[in-house]
Design brief:
The chain is an alpha+beta fold and 178 residues long. The protein is 26% helix and 26% strand. Strands 5-2-3-6-9 form a 5-stranded mixed β-sheet. A hairpin with a 2-residue loop joins strand 2 and strand 3. The longest helix is centred in the first third of the chain and has 9 residues.
């Protein structure tokens, strides 16, 4: 009999396997992904009926030659200077999509900060702390997990920093620090 992969053994993605193994409480949300959608994150928020400031996207950047994961609200964008500063770097740029996919083991639009092939240093936007739970990719387009931001930070050894740009704070204030 063939050896089953982690995904097959647990009946989920590497991200959900990691959450289950850690004993973390989470909820899986699935929706029908539209390949024509211009924004995976905004599509997820709308499909799940969740406020965009509670749905976070996972982006991979190159900070001084090291791939780094940035987790920011889909309602805004990543501030590359702030990301570099958060990890004591000088310069950040978005990573080559092929390198991000190869390193994380996920496809673009489905990259999760959890269960990556190679664990990358991670920075979570500090606005996550304003919510009881946030939603992140579960490792495939059309699949999200909802969990406490503190659990995500702990499992990824994330640095919390104001790396989002153009986001709104939960109380409606615009800004980069809630």
């Amino acid at each position: 009999m063939a050896k089953k992969s982690r995904k097959q053994q647990a009946g989920g993605t590497p991200a959900t396997v990691a959450l289950t193994a850690a004993g973390v409480a989470f909820t899986v949300h699935s929706y029908e992904h539209d390949p024509a959608s211009p924004s995976y994150g905004e599509e997820a928020a709308q499909a799940m009926g969740v406020a965009p400031e509670r749905v976070f996207k996972t982006l991979v950047a190159d900070v001084d030659g090291a791939l780094t994961v940035a987790v920011v609200p889909v309602a805004g964008s990543l501030d590359l200077k702030a990301l570099a500063s958060a990890v004591s770097g000088k310069r950040a740029a978005m990573a080559d999509p092929a390198a991000a996919e190869r390193t994380t083991g996920y496809v673009r639009g489905g990259i999760s900060p959890l269960g990556q092939r190679k664990k990358l240093r991670t920075v979570l936007d500090d606005s996550a702390g304003a919510h009881d739970t946030i939603c992140i990719s579960a490792g495939r387009r059309g699949l999200e997990v909802e969990l406490a931001p503190a659990d995500l930070a702990k499992l990824t050894d994330a640095v919390l920093a104001p790396i989002g740009r153009g986001r709104a704070c939960p109380d409606g204030r615009p800004g980069t620090s809630c």
